[in-house]
Task: structure prediction
Amino acid sequence: MLDLRVGFIGCFVVGVLLGVFAMLHGVERAPRATVRRFSLNLPTIAGFATVFGLAGFFLDRFTTLSSAMDLLLAAVIGAVSAVLALVLVAGWAIPGAKAEVVDERYELQGCIARVIEVHADGITGVITYDVGGAHHTATAHGLDDARLTPGTDVAIERVENGIAYVEPWAQVEARL
Result:
């Protein structure tokens, strides 16, 4: 009986560790043409192991059921929780993320650029930056009318009507 509890605690700990690993490293998979409703991946396994271990420990500790029944019920509870989590993600989180409208003004936010030319007013000029392996240039305006200096690195805040509003990278870096 004690060995079974240790096994349940071990499953719980492994499940939590796998869940933390998945949160820290993310889960990426290649897009597929077919839609799958059930996905056996690291977060699903982590969730199952965590709930299986927790439910099994409590069943073994606080009930008089046999060890076989503890294992069976813990497996059922773990499987149900994994399926419910998948249903929640598939039915709420994924559609919500897909429905989100991307504001095109902020697609380049945080992109590092270099000022290559400053106009006479000192707050507008031209920047150059690389995105996706392609080299781009754009008209730039200092954020909050900040002065631009040729050769300095800037961070793009937003792009409106073809004008990139930029802030010196040194100021952004100081805030980080």
Q: What stands out?
A: The mean pLDDT is 88. The longest strand covers residues 134-142. The helical segments are 2-25, 42-62, 67-99, 169-175. The two ends are 52 Å apart (CA to CA).
